[in-house]
User: Which sequence fits this backbone?
C-alpha cells in the first residue's frame, strides 16, 4: 500500500511537483492509483483493461534512474502522472475494442498520435476505460464490458461515451484521463461525475489511431480534476508550438442564452448556470443574456450527420451484427437508411447552426450553457421529472440533447463542475468558445475555479 495519505498530492500538478522535489516516488504514486482502481472497479466498472503489473514495473524502473539536475535536460511536464485512456485510442500491443464484442480481437500495431504525445510527456497509461459501446450513445449503460457506475452513486449513470474516463478521475483513481467527443462525450460524463472536460476545436488534435464514430465531428480531449490539470493535459495533447488565438486583453464577455438552452432543463441545472454566471461576474467577467432560440432541431440534425458516417466507418460490423448491442444496431441501421438527399439537407442545416453560434460569439468570448438537461439519472430510469418543465424520456431527450449542437459547429467547449443537487449529485455547466480559443476557455475556467473557491473532492473509497 502506498505511503501517500488520502487528500495529499492528488492533482497532476501536485504529483509533478512532489516527484520533482523527491518528496514521493513513482512507486508511491502508481501504487496508490492501482490500489484505488482495484477497490473501485467492482463498484463502478470504470476500466475495460487494467495493467497494474506493467505500470508498477515501470514505476520501479523510473525510481531506479539517477536524478539529473542539469538544466540542459528539461523535466517532462507531466512526469509519471497516472493516466486513464478511453478504449478507442490505440495503444500498441493492446486491444482497441470501443467496448464492443465485435472488436475484441482488434490489437493495435502502433500507438495513436495522442498516445505518442502522452508518452512524450512522460505520462503513465494505467489502462483502458469503459465507454458507451462504439461511442454510439451518451449514457454508458450500454457496453460489452458492462455499464459504468457513477462514483457518487453507482446506481446512477456516468453519462457517455467517455463515462469510464470521467468516473476514474471523479473517484480519485487518476487525476487525468483521455476522452473523445463527437456529440458531447468529454462534457456529459464530467458534468454527471463532477470533473472538468475540454472539447477542443474540431480538428485541433489528430484522430489518427482513434476509433471513429463520425469522422467529421470526432475530437479527442482531456478530462481532469482541476482546471490547472486540464490545461496541463491539453498542452501535452496539442502539437508543440500549435498556434492559439490566445486570450483577449480586454475584459472577457460571456453570454447566457435562453430558449433552447433554458427550456426543458431541470431547475437545478438552470440555477447552476445562473450561479456560475454570478461567480464569473465576481471575477470581473461581463455576463449578459443572449437570444438562444433557433436551433431546437440540433439533435435531429446531429443524428442525420452522425449515423451515416458511423455506418461508413465500421464496415466490419455488417458481418458481425450479432456481436453488437441492439441499441447500437439501431444507430447503424438508421445510418444505412438515410438517403443522400437527407444527408445534404442535414449538411446545409449544420452550416446554419454553426453560423448561429458564431453570430452570437461576435459579441462574446464565450456562451455559458447547461451541459446536460438534468443531473445523473438512475441507470434504469426511463423518465426524468424536470419540475415546471414537465417530464422527459431519457431515450428521446438524452444526456447529449444540448451538447451535440456544439459538435455541429465544431467549436471548443469546456465543462465546469459548477454545482451539486440536493442529493449530492454533480451538475456541470459549459462554456462554448470561438474557434481555436481554447486558451480563453481555460482562462475562464481558472477564473471560475478561483472565484467560486472550487476544490476537487472524491467520494470515500469503498470498504
Assistant:
Amino acid at each position: 500500500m502506498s505511503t501517500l495519505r488520502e487528500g495529499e498530492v492528488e492533482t497532476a500538478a501536485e504529483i509533478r511537483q512532489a516527484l520533482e522535489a523527491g518528496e514521493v516516488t513513482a512507486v508511491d504514486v502508481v501504487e496508490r492509483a492501482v490500489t484505488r482502481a482495484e477497490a473501485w472497479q467492482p463498484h463502478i466498472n470504470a476500466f475495460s483493461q487494467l495493467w497494474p503489473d506493467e505500470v508498477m514495473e515501470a514505476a520501479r524502473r523510473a525510481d531506479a534512474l539517477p536524478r539529473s539536475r542539469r538544466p540542459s535536460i528539461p523535466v517532462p511536464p507531466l512526469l509519471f502522472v497516472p493516466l486513464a485512456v478511453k478504449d478507442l485510442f490505440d495503444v500498441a500491443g493492446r486491444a482497441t475494442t470501443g467496448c464492443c464484442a465485435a472488436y475484441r480481437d482488434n490489437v493495435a500495431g502502433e500507438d495513436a498520435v495522442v498516445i505518442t504525445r502522452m508518452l512524450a510527456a512522460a505520462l503513465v497509461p494505467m489502462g483502458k476505460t469503459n465507454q458507451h459501446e462504439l461511442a454510439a450513445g451518451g449514457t454508458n449503460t450500454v457496453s460489452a464490458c458492462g455499464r459504468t457506475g457513477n462514483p457518487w452513486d453507482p446506481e446512477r449513470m456516468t453519462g457517455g461515451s467517455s463515462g469510464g474516463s470521467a468516473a476514474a478521475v471523479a473517484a480519485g483513481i487518476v487525476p487525468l484521463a483521455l476522452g473523445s467527443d463527437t456529440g458531447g462525450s468529454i462534457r456529459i460524463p464530467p458534468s454527471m461525475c463532477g470533473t472538468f472536460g475540454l472539447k477542443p476545436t474540431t480538428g485541433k488534435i489528430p484522430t489518427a489511431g482513434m476509433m471513429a464514430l463520425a469522422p467529421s465531428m470526432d475530437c479527442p480531449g482531456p478530462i481532469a480534476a482541476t482546471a490547472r490539470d486540464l490545461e496541463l493535459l491539453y498542452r501535452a495533447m496539442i502539437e508543440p508550438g500549435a498556434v492559439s488565438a490566445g486570450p483577449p486583453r480586454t475584459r472577457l464577455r460571456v453570454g447566457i442564452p435562453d430558449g433552447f438552452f433554458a427550456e426543458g432543463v431541470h431547475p437545478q441545472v438552470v440555477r447552476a448556470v445562473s450561479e456560475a454566471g454570478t461567480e464569473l461576474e465576481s471575477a470581473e467577467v461581463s455576463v449578459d443574456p443572449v437570444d438562444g432560440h433557433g436551433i431546437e432541431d440540433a439533435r435531429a440534425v446531429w443524428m442525420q450527420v452522425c449515423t451515416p458516417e458511423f455506418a461508413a466507418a465500421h464496415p466490419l460490423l455488417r458481418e458481425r451484427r450479432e456481436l453488437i448491442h441492439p441499441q447500437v444496431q439501431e444507430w447503424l441501421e438508421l445510418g444505412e437508411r438515410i438517403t443522400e438527399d437527407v444527408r445534404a439537407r442535414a449538411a446545409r442545416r449544420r452550416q446554419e447552426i454553426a453560423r448561429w453560434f458564431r453570430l452570437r460569439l461576435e459579441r462574446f468570448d464565450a456562451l455559458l450553457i447547461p451541459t446536460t438537461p438534468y443531473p445523473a439519472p438512475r441507470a434504469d430510469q426511463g423518465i426524468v421529472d424536470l419540475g415546471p418543465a414537465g417530464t422527459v424520456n431519457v431515450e428521446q431527450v438524452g444526456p447529449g440533447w444540448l451538447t451535440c449542437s456544439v459538435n455541429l459547429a465544431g467549436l471548443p467547449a469546456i465543462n465546469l463542475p459548477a454545482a451539486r443537487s440536493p442529493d449530492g449529485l454533480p451538475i456541470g455547466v459549459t462554456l462554448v468558445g470561438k474557434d481555436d480559443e481554447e486558451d480563453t476557455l481555460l482562462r475562464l475556467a481558472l477564473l471560475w475555479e478561483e472565484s467560486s473557491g472550487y476544490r476537487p473532492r472524491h467520494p470515500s473509497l469503498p470498504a
